[in-house]
């Protein structure tokens, strides 16, 4: 009889532990964390339409678009102005892993079958490069989109 009581209490403890683990998992998956970090000023289409190849000067471009994030000076005296914006967010798997890291029982995430093999962040970076001649006139516009 005493053995049956110990076994029932042990099973009840395991059941409570599973319920707590499921609650932590659900909270972690629904609490998705997002972060929009801007690393420079990537202009919208309306602003880009205000600048013109072989016509706009560096001063005119800066007035319309603002200061660039980075300026690269080439050996041929041309300048590359870089505007960049990154939008990223944490993945659901990362959020679940972080939520389970606060669990009072070691290795709870592994016991529940939550193993994070995905990247912690995903997002996209938009880069705009404006190339100016040595006389300071806009010569070329290059756009790049990078997903991670």
What does this structure look like?
This protein has 148 residues and is an alpha+beta fold. It has one domain (2-147). It is built from five helices and five strands; from the N terminus they run H-E-H-H-E-E-H-H-E-E. Strands 1, 2, 3, 4 and 5 form a five-stranded antiparallel beta sheet that branches. A hairpin with a 5-residue loop joins strand 2 (70-73) and strand 3. Helix 1 (2-30) crosses helix 4. The longest helix is centred in the first third of the chain and has 29 residues, at 2-30. The relative contact order is 0.20. The model is unreliable at 31-39 (pLDDT under 50).
Overall 3D geometry?
Answer: rod-shaped
Helix content: 25-40%
User: Which residue ranges are poorly predicted, with pLDDT under 50 across at least 5 consecutive positions?
Assistant: 31-39
C-alpha termini separation:
60 Å
Topology overview:
Layout: H1 2-30, E1 34-35, H2 45-48, H3 58-65, E2 70-73, E3 79-90, H4 92-100, H5 108-111, E4 121-132, E5 138-147
Antiparallel strand pairs: 1-3, 2-3, 3-4, 4-5
Helix pairs in contact: 1-4
Which short descriptors sum up this protein?
148 residues, alpha+beta, 5-stranded antiparallel β-sheet
Quick recap:
The protein is α+β, with helices and mostly antiparallel strands and 148 residues long. The protein is 36% helix and 27% strand.
């Amino acid at each position: 009889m005493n053995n049956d009581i110990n076994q029932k209490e042990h099973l009840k403890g395991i059941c409570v532990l599973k319920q707590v683990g499921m609650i932590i998992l659900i909270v972690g998956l629904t609490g998705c964390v997002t972060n929009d970090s801007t690393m420079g000023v990537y202009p919208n289409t309306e602003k880009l339409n205000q600048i013109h190849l072989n016509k706009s000067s560096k001063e005119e471009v800066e007035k319309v678009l603002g200061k660039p994030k980075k300026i690269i000076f080439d050996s041929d005296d041309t300048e590359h102005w870089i505007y960049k914006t990154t939008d990223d967010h944490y993945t659901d798997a990362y959020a679940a892993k972080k939520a389970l890291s606060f669990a009072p029982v070691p290795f709870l995430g592994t016991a529940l079958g939550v193993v994070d093999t995905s990247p912690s962040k995903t997002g996209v970076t938009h880069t705009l490069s404006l190339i100016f001649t040595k006389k300071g006139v806009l010569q070329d516009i290059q756009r790049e989109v990078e997903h991670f």
